[in-house]
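Narrative summary of target 7.
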Amino acid sequence: METRMSKMRGAWVLATIAMTAGSQAHAQSSATAIADGRQVFQHCSTCHSLSPSQNGRGPTLNKIFGRRAGSVPGYAYSLALKNSGIIWNTASLQRYVSDPGKVVPGGKMEFAGIANPKQIQDLLAYLRQAAR
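Modeled conformation, tokenized:
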């Protein structure tokens, strides 16, 4: 009985160590993605801000997740975006950021898109953290 309990305790300790190491690796990879996403956002920041009330050439991206496209007060959106019915979430932002003109033909966004999937993921990680 003692041997079996020792093995079970040992397995529990190893599982706990593995979970802790996995959490730390995930935290590091998340921190790296956020930092890399901040760099990607530098291109976006020529038109967009993360300020709750500051629109630029483009609308603020503050609290973008869960927001209906074309709904920031005080910004003159294209009818195409206003009528798109898009709710910004991970999937819709991935599609839009990769090719805005294809997702919303007739929109005002003058950006061709980001081709690199990692850069898109990093950007979204940054926006999730910074645009709350």
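The radius of gyration is 21 Å.
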